[in-house]
Amino acid sequence: MNYFPDEVIEHIFEYVGSHRDRNALSLVCRSWYRIERCTREKVFIGNCYSITPERLIQRFPSLKSLTLKGKPHFADFSLVPHGWGGFVYPWIEALAKGKVGLEELRLKRMVVSDESLELLSRAFPNFKSLVLVSCEEFTTDGLAAIAANCKRLRELDLQENEVDDHKGQWLSCFPDSCTSLVSLNFACLKGEINTGVLERLVARSPNLKSLRLNRSVPLDALQRIVARAPQLVDLGVGSLVHDPAMETFAKLMTTMNKCKSITSLSGFLEVTPRCLTAMYPILPKLTSLNLSYAAGIPGSDLIKLIRHCKKLQRLWIMDSIGDKGLGVVANTCKELQELRVFPSDNIGQHAAVTEKGLVAISMGCPKLHSLLYFCHQMTNAALITVAKNCPNFIRFRLAILDATKPDPDTNQPLDEGFGAIVQSCRRLRRLSLSGQLTDKVFLYIGMYAEQLEMLSIAFAGESDKGMLYVLNGCKKLRKLEIRDCPFGNTALLTDVGKYETMRSLWMSSCEVTVGACKVLAMKMPRLNVEIFNENEPADCEPDDVQKVEKMYLYRTLAGKRKDAPEYVWTL
Amino acid sequence: MEEMVMGTLDLITASPHSSSSSSSSPTTDNNNNNNHPSSSSSISTRRTDLSTDLRLGLSLSPSHYSTPSSREQRSSFDWPPVKSTLRCTLVEKSQISHFVKVYMEGIPIGRKLNLLAHHNYHALVKALANMFRTTILCPNSHQLPLISGNNVHVLTYEDQEGDWMMVGDVPWEMFLTSVKKLKITRADRC
């Protein structure tokens, strides 16, 4: 390959897309490193503090698309205090200064201020796509800037962000000349929008394929909007609530009948269940259905709906569907690949889903490879059956609502069940454990989970041995997050070199002490070891023997960060 | 029902966060939490205590969600691992509903309305005006009716003692605990 001119190698590299493959290419030899770095357009940075923006820009002059992740995963569950970090502004500032031709920015769990959105909207004339997932701090003012200034905007995708809705007219800020929208998702916004403005925007966006509305769009406006976009592929209905005028409802049904391309449906934040019949025309073609926010749909209506969805590949649903409903899913959705069952709040009602539903799914859906399952109980026997029926799991996440519940039939911990999962599913990359668990489950994981990259543990284990089995055994481990487990200093310090092979480690409410963290930080200068000291005053040096409430460590080439709040000690 | 509603009132007066929810907090725009906490009392056990209990195998079952009413007040209890956006949606749905019958004068068939879906008198009047397609005078406006016709109405309610009263004189929370039925009567009758 060294005898090919650079142009040929460049051309070959064009076919190599994935980040991992690209990273591998750059390690082969110096000339490949050089060619690769000059031609790389898309970069993925899993931890925004692992590298400085300047270094990124220096290495990849052709950068067009950047993905950044900020806060650790457990921030989703309120375990990371406010103000920890993950600010995107310095990145945007550096990219602007470096005159990067940025076209696409995807952020997850980052702090995005309106100032950063404004700068983003002005600094990159070719900017096309903004995707914000689980971010915070921005308001509709920032969105207004994006709408007004990004002349080539194709995608504005807001997923599960905390947005202060100033009820301004941000949608009106899209100029009449903006006709390039392909994807618009504002389902997470809480405020009212001007439906007339939205309708006109949709009417002048012939390429619009994905539209997800928030709950403020009433049924009649929904009908008019969808009527303007029969080419839609992905629809998010914010609100489907009874309109006293029955003709509107009939109109909506006719409109849905004309939408021959919709394969993805989501939303229903507000819903009158009998209005769901309006959606029936599109159900048979759906490959993706997300009802995880549709708390207003009772189980019986969910079941009725599912019977029409024979082509589903991805289903996100609430546990109000029940074990019986999951049985219907198993009989109907033979193409199912990904299933997520979320807990609904059933005060005083019977247990929503149990191991029975999962077993039914495993029997009926052979293609299943991704699972997130919140349930009231799980048994070893069920997990063993599931492991046998579905050896193709890539992601397996179980969350039992009673976090340390043993197998209710045998009163045993769930070690054997999860052991069966890791032994059978050789391609498992992500695993979340739940229920009563001893060190044994970690022995199994260390022994069998060879491809495991991410492991989430809560209220499990008996001793340091548990954590050590995992650290020693899982060679491909990248992210380990642990809360409320009896793992301590020995587990933390036995193999310090391991952490440089990983992206990050989170430990909270465990048995690790300040002293041990200090030792670790001293031995590994290329790790940032942060401990969070929420309850102590900022200038009070904690005792070495004191237990650490929360610790987050990650490998980095950027050194100690300068934007940490007072309660974060980087050792 | 009466007890549950009275219980709610107790929770309202006892709660230190009662009516001053910050309007800029993104999680409380439609969130009734501060005024109507769920009667299935949210578990706000300190996480450290609970984790000790769990380790002792007491297998407490935290089957109800804690109710974060604003960013600052986020509860420290965070199992099951559910994103805050979903948690807020569920908290809204879990609130007690308080459906009352609503009649409009001259129409024999009544409707039913969930009072807890509204935050104040203004919202209630707006919803009813929409439901019954008429003009209802807002209770606290001191205007005299400009149209003395038969398409302007006022809102009245039957209280726990069986008396028919004009809606709007007492604070919203107090109204919620005393209302049994609603009636939309012609303005020129009052």
Automatic annotation (TrEMBL), chain A:
CDD domains xref list: F-box_AtTIR1-like
Keywords: Auxin signaling pathway, Developmental protein, Nucleus, Ubl conjugation pathway
Gene3D superfamilies with a match to the protein in the record: 1.20.1280.50, Ribonuclease Inhibitor
TM region positions: none
Compartments where located: Nucleus
InterPro entries assigned to the protein according to its UniProt record, in alphabetical order: COI1_F-box, F-box_dom, Leu-rich_rpt_Cys-con_subtyp, LRR_dom_sf, Transp_inhibit
GO biological process: one example: SCF-dependent proteasomal ubiquitin-dependent protein catabolic process
Any GO MF annotation of the entry: auxin binding
Domain F-box: 4-45
A single cellular component GO annotation: SCF ubiquitin ligase complex
Domain of life of the source: Eukaryota
Metabolic or biological pathway, per its Swiss-Prot or TrEMBL entry: Protein modification; protein ubiquitination
Protein name: F-box domain-containing protein
